């Protein structure tokens, strides 16, 4: 590829698409501009891109001549969007999607990073890069100014000797980190709540604790639900750190649980949580966008604490996608147990997409409902 790539062509699909939700922004453009001279000096395979929401950094760099780009995106929907955008607009781009590990960054000399909002996620990324990248590696880490904090500078300084800050442009800024320190690969953070071991890599929702919505759901989940076999497992949908999955498996020694999340950090955390609780033989954790790996009418019980963010944007279109796919996977008369912020008023949506819905409990902030598949 050659010549500047028109980032306005990019789409967010299969992620939520709506007015005001963009696939690329000024921060992507600034990262590409600030890193241009450094990228011009590297060889194929020496560029790594991390946190590229929908492909702007990867395809922008490929249009400038980068080859053999290694890419890590936490969200599986981001990987799918990058692949779709490449097929449509940049079929000659050469890149590979990889996990956040030493192989991703081994020998890398330039790293383009969209800064995550979570400081723990940034710490894990910085440590991973510093542990295996080339000694002269340079990291160009950018975001919209409104999503940046001074603490991000401190996190990067724990993994790199030098940090420079660019001037802001179009309400965006780039941090440039150089000279990796001698650090080790990150381990998951550990916590113990109500007798349950929790493990969390940076960026996993709620970290090594139980958020109040999930806690309320756990207090009311049924203990005598049908199935729970290897062929008809209970499903922890959008599982996060796998708290529900491991709690279910711990409470019910014969039950098999299927846990699914599109976040790579969540999936790694849920697997570590299952291992820490000694239930990994009965908890299957998969990375999936929605429940696409599950057949229609293949489950009797699903638990869900739906997210309401698409990237950094709040959107009321995220949860309905999950409700609809849960309905697809549920057997007739199967149940979706759901906890949600009461202000979001999801009950009519659940009635429409899944089936008859009744309230189980409600506190000042959250509501727990059960919807029976019609």
TrEMBL record:
Domain Methyltransferase small: 197-369
A Pfam family recorded for this sequence: MTS
Domain RlmG N-terminal: 10-178
GO BP field: methylation
GO MF annotation terms: methyltransferase activity
Keywords: Methyltransferase, Transferase
SUPFAM superfamilies from the UniProt entry: S-adenosyl-L-methionine-dependent methyltransferases (SSF53335)
Designated name of the protein: Methyltransferase
Taxonomic placement: Bacteria, Bacillati, Actinomycetota, Actinomycetes, Micrococcales
């Amino acid at each position: 590829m050659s010549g500047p790539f028109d980032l306005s062509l990019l789409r967010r699909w299969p992620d939520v698409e709506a007015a005001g939700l963009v696939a690329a922004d000024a921060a992507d453009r600034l990262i590409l501009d600030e890193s241009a001279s450094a990228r011009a000096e590297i060889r194929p395979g020496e560029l790594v891109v991390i946190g590229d929401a929908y492909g702007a950094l990867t395809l922008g760099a490929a249009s400038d001549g980068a080859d053999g780009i290694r890419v890590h995106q936490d969200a599986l929907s981001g990987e799918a969007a990058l692949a779709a955008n490449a097929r449509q607009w940049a079929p000659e781009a050469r890149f590979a999607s990889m996990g956040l590990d030493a192989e991703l960054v081994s020998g890398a000399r330039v790293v383009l990073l969209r800064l995550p909002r979570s400081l723990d996620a940034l710490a894990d990324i910085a440590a991973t890069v510093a542990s295996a990248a080339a000694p002269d590696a340079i990291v160009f880490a950018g975001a919209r100014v409104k999503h940046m904090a001074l603490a991000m500078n401190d996190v990067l300084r724990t993994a790199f000797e030098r940090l420079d800050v660019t001037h802001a442009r179009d309400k965006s800024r780039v941090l440039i980190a150089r000279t990796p320190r001698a650090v080790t690969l990150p381990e998951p953070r550990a916590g113990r709540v109500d007798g349950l071991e929790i493990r969390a890599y940076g960026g996993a929702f709620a970290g090594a604790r139980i958020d109040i919505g999930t806690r309320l759901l756990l207090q009311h989940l049924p203990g005598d639900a049908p199935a729970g076999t290897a062929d008809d497992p209970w499903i922890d949908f959008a599982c996060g750190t796998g708290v529900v999955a491991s709690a279910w498996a711990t409470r019910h020694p014969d039950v098999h649980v299927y846990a699914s999340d599109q976040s790579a950090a969540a999936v790694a955390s849920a697997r570590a949580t299952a291992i820490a609780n000694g239930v990994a033989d009965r908890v299957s954790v998969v990375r999936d966008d929605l429940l696409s790996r599950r057949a229609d009418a293949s489950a009797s019980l699903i638990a869900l604490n739906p997210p309401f963010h698409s990237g950094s944007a709040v959107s009321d279109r995220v949860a309905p996608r999950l409700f609809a796919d849960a309905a697809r996977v549920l057997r007739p008369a199967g149940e979706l147990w759901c906890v949600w912020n009461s202000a979001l008023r999801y009950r009519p949506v659940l009635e429409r997409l899944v089936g008859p819905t009744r309230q189980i409990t409600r506190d000042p902030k959250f509501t727990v409902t059960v919807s029976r598949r019609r």
